[in-house]
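Observation: inputs received (chain + fructose -6-phosphate).
Thought: call the complex predictor directly.
Action: predict_structure
Action Input:
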Amino acid sequence: MCGIVGYVGHRPALGVVVEALRRMEYRGYDSAGVAVVGPRAAQTGVVTVEKRAGKLANLTGALQVDIAADPDRFAGTTGMGHTRWATHGRPTDRNAHPHVAGGFAVVHNGIIENYAALRAELEAYGVEFESDTDTEVAVQLVQHHYVAGSTAGDFEASAYAALRRLDGAFTLLFVHAAHPGTIVAARRSTPLVVGVGDGETFLGSDVAAFIEHTRDAVELGQDQVVIITAGGYLITDFAGEPQPGTPFRIDWDLEAAEKGGHDYFMLKEIEEQPAAVENTLLGHFEGGRIVLDEQRLSDQDLRDVDKVFIVACGSAYHSGLVAKYAIEHWTRLPCEVELASEFRYRDPVLGRSTLVVAISQSGETADTLEAVRHAREQKARVLAVCNTNGAQIPRESDAVLYTRAGPEIGVASTKAFLAQVTANYLVGLALAQARGTKYPDEVAREYRDLEAMPALVEKVLATGPAMRDLARELAGADTILFLGRHVGYPVALEGALKLKELAYMHAEGFAAGELKHGPIALIEDGLPVIVVMPSPRGRAVLHSKLVSNIREIQARGARTIVIAEEGDEAAATHADNLIQIPAAPTLFQPLLATVPLQIFAAEVAQARGYDVDKPRNLAKSVTVE
Ligand code: F6R
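Observation:
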């Protein structure tokens, strides 16, 4: 949510910053802006800024015009940029970042919760505000400290003084026209990483911002300030006391953050799913045992668990719903799956023997992070399932299992979702193993079945052309319903979510058995209904119940699009359109059945002329509650 970049070095900053913004745009695309501190800023006393509402292309168009009129305007080797996902104030040019006051410019990700009080205080001093944003208080505050009081004329001291007044969640970058070569940045509960190059230093909301220049990065902790120059960085706390950073080496390359010949990242990421599942499994079965990554929980801790809560949002939540079936089946532990945004506000019953599994691709989602904090306050053990090394959620958890999907740039989750589902199975098997509810050979057999899944996911990708044809046919529909039972139910929810968020089409997922309790009233002639069939080789009763559900909706005129296992004769008989997927163990079927639905949503969105990677009103990681 909001992408932030910063650069101090020896190259022209504008090019570095704009290129970095391209890679950050998935985090927000309501507006974009840049600031450069160079000779022009020194002359005018004002940082050189350009910003525009809308996607990055609007900003780059404006920059071309600016540079054509005045080629030296953006000269300088210190710069920063921002892509916005609006929270306070409409996405207009005026509300776009950077925000400027006096010689300062600021970019911000997060929410400054006490902005109204600070604004009133500054207005009482005669400060005039120009925007409707919470961010502007940060720049007006730092300017206020720079012109008066004990910090007057001191860039860094003014920034510290301003930061100490702010409440909420924020990543902030400050530059000043009279202080080229330095950026002061801070983070509290939102992400910021430092990239360390040769004579140049970078800042980014994530490492994609600078991956083309350096693989050496430094992770910042909670409530830390970093001051960067071309020569390096200094990390402190908000009081200015030096703090250690956590250096790490980025283990994926530029190619992973590029489209690789696809029109959209999402299409590339759908194709990367076999590898995402395979890599997530890698190294987790050693010496005949399931092993997690950073298992700071002992086997005894796992044996003591008497209840599992899964907390997550959106697609990650759907992956948790799948996990519930596996965890309860394998471990006989009660498992509840909660939307993270609801969890902490309803006073859940937690204790030392509760295991909370927090699932998050980004590891930054504010709702999930707050759920983790709440769980830990209540002394529960927290295991994070996360796709981003060193992100806040794994940092604040007792144990971590990383999904190894690689960077996911498309806003709609695809490969990260499949990787989450896979990792959740590992969590279930680890619990079953520690608690002895499965014999070692049973755990090994489940794991071998899981290992066979990437090849089957690869096969499902072959449903692409059929899903594309269907998408073109149904692109004009007003509503599409999705039905499933058992693990097919979360798949139905996920299919509907994908369609809503990408194609802006009304879509609902239902547990097929619930249909007759209300939703069946929605069925009318020709209404497309996508049905996720359970395996006919699994529990026969499930399969036959769903066949009955298909008959019920067909009798009322629905057009049935059925996703069924190869050889499922009953499904074939009742399907207006049949999409076949390979046979797999029932619990693992979501890894297959979800894939055609992802392709379908992406294709409907394209047929309707929408940007698949950047659906309206959304951002990749949601760092505000
Ligand atoms: C939907 C989607 C979102 C995320 C949700 C949680 O396609 O991507 O619903 O799943 O915002 O994000 P993470 O996993 O980063 O916590």
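Thought: report the result.
Final Answer: The mean pLDDT is 93. Residues 313-316, 360-362, 365, 368, 412-413, 497, 501, 621-622 surround fructose -6-phosphate (CB under 6 Å).
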